Amino acid sequence: MTILLFDGHCNLCQASVRFVITREKTSKIRFAALQSPQGKYLMTKHGISVDYNLSLVLLDDGECLTKSDAALQTASYLNLPWCLMKYFRFLPKKFRDYIYDLVAEKRYRWFGRQAECLVPSPELKKRFL
Prior knowledge:
Number of strands: 4
Number of helices: 4
Structural class: alpha+beta
Strand content: 5-15%
Distance between the termini: 12 Å
């Protein structure tokens, strides 16, 4: 199973989840907010602090990925041309994560923040834990 944990208060993260849902090839990915009980349980299970909200967390067939690794692996599940972003893995991880961290640090200022986590529509509810 593939699960994408995201910051449920972040407008950029919520938009990213909607982007993935509309462009995913197979509807394989399930979603949960980092702040949700399911998200906290999964983070604890994988050795991540429940206070962590610095990046996406992708649980992909037992592997736990964060930051640019999580974003690029998620991209590999998308339709063309978006799946081609996975080839950015060839860039040095330190560089990729530096760029990721810059955006993550400013995401609330640039894109805003919600007081409550994303509530999926009834037709998308089955995709959320």
